[in-house]
Amino acid sequence: MQNSNANKKQSFLGGAAVLALATAVVKLIGAFYKIPIQHVIGNDGYSYFNTAYAIYNVLLMIATTGLPVAMSRMIAEATTQQDPLQIRRVYDAAKRLFLSVGLAGSLFMALLCVPLADFMGQRNAWFPILCLSPAVLLLCLSSVNRGFFQGQGDMRPTSISQVLEALCKLLIGLGLAMVVMYFFRRNGLETTLPDGRPFPKGSEAAAALSRAHAFAAGGAIIGVTLGCGLAAFYLYRLVRKTETYSLVAAAEEAQAGESTTRKLLKIAVPITLGAAGLQLITLVDTAVYMMRLKNAAGFSQEAADDLKGIYDYCQTIFNMPAAFITSIVVAVIPALTEQITMKNRKGERVIADSAFRVMALVASPCAVGLAVLSRPIYALLAKHTPESLNIATPLLAVLGICAFFNAVVLVSNSIMQSHGDVTVPVTNMLIGGIIKIIVSFVLVGNPEINILGAAIGTVICYASISILNLVSMAKRKYPVSLTRTVLKPVIASLIMGAGAALARRLLEGMGLSNAPVTLGSIAVGGVLYVILVLALRVITREDCTLLPKGDKIAKLLHIS
């Protein structure tokens, strides 16, 4: 049994490693996309870009949150039981559901793009919303095929499709945004006053520039939509090569297929309602803080758009650690479901402990690093003025803290869902979302706090969900030890943060520019973190043996 546990842990960590590597590549490509895109379309254009994404994410949660989890669990069970016919039933049932929901979501965004933009308080966002609408259907088609492979423990198709999607977004999306802005400039659009200063907020020139930025944001989003199409085509061709592609045609299988569909929906619907509910609350929260910025805090439409653009860019940086944690979530559900199906309690603990430890190893240094280096990181990555940098610094620091709680929520949700506990995560997320709206309404309306109130609401939201999830897991006695898996990485990260902050002060005192100060501080923090992880024995020899040439790595690093 010990060898079996080790093999399952290796399978889980191997799948997570494949996805993490793909995520690193995708994030690198994304950096070459999102950093210059903000320079091309400005803070207001970036806010339109993210308004379209906020609506898209709600529909995406409805379409792709519960069904992939249900599909992954059911395929993992069928794989463990060596039942290829059931794998085929699950795939066919999920495909029909994904296609229906995806088509409805795309039509909803396309036909209601103008009313949706008005609801969000940003009329100029209608074109980006329209451009993004086909992506709902395309990503649904990708999701059903990704779930087919993930349920069988094969993470490579998901990884390759994500890289293809990111490359298309970079090459086509960024190119189209630049072409659109070039077209407007050729036709007499001015982007600044003659002395280089920005146009006054509320002026006709500022409004004309915002409209141009909205069309450029739409061009950037067309690259995203085409990337989704390329990924969907690649995965479709890959599934066609497998024997399980063809529909179950035998008449005697009809009732079994209906039963499979009902079981999929029984698992998927509560998860979907919770995730979609949280995204819907986030959408309402955006509308609320935009209203409060303009009405209670007294900002003009253009100024509110700018503040939202800065906040959205900080959220983009904040979401980077979460992308790596998603790799753990995708891998943990089929691996843990397999152990639960086999009634292997020790195997459950091995997988759950590994998931939390890897989460803490990744999320805690990212959270502390963003919190203590928020100003130089934003200055390095974003197009900014002294005013926007002063606004972004506390925003990114607060969201940095939230990155850790967000990671805890993602992993704890996946563990509860693997055990079939789908309603408690839903309830906890909805409670956190309501808290977020209340905090945003109260704080954003204060002119001294304004957009920072939205960030504070976000961190309180995810901290509340984290506490509720961990209490729920403790009551159900799920086999996981937080003190053994999370405490040491957090301690190492806090010490690392102090070292990085000290390095920043020393480098700034030497008169260096921001780029070497930021990169130097990150390098010092990274080296210190690795030393602390080894000194505190966060990584064991068993962990190393799961890596290629792991014995040599353990020997080299003196890990016993």
Explained architecture:
With 560 residues, this protein is mainly α. The chain folds into 2 domains: 2-251 and 276-485, no CATH class; 486-560, no CATH class. Helix content is 83%, strand content 0%. Helix 6 (134-150) packs parallel to helix 8 (204-240). The radius of gyration is 24 Å and the shape is globular. Residues 1-10 and 244-252 have low confidence and may be disordered.
Layout of strands and helices, then pairs:
Blueprint: H1 2-64, H2 66-80, H3 84-111, H4 113-119, H5 126-132, H6 134-150, H7 156-186, H8 204-240, H9 254-294, H10 301-341, H11 345-372, H12 374-381, H13 386-418, H14 423-444, H15 452-475, H16 482-485, H17 487-509, H18 514-535, H19 541-545, H20 550-556
Helix pairs in contact: 1-3, 1-5, 1-6, 1-7, 1-8, 1-9, 1-10, 1-11, 2-3, 2-6, 2-9, 2-10, 3-5, 3-6, 3-9, 4-5, 5-8, 6-7, 6-8, 7-8, 9-14, 10-11, 10-13, 11-13, 11-17, 12-13, 12-18, 13-15, 14-15, 17-18
Name some characteristics of this structure.
560 residues, disordered N terminus, mainly alpha, globular
What's this entry about, in short?
Helices cover 83% and strands 0% of the residues. The protein is mostly helical. It folds into two domains: 2-251 and 276-485, no CATH class; 486-560, no CATH class.
Write down the Rg. Answer: 24 Å
What is the count of β-strands? 0
How much of the polypeptide forms β-strand, as a percent range? under 5%
- How many alpha or pi helices? 20
**Helical residues, percent:** over 70%
- Overall shape: globular
What order do the SSEs take from the amino end to the carboxyl end, as H and E?
Answer: HHHHHHHHHHHHHHHHHHHH
Q: What distance lies between the first and last C-alpha atoms, to the nearest angstrom?
A: 23 Å
The average pLDDT is: 80
Residue windows where pLDDT falls under 50 for at least 5 positions: 1-10, 244-252
Structural class: mainly alpha
Instruction: Summarize the biggest pleated sheet.
Output: none
Count of the separate structural domains? 2
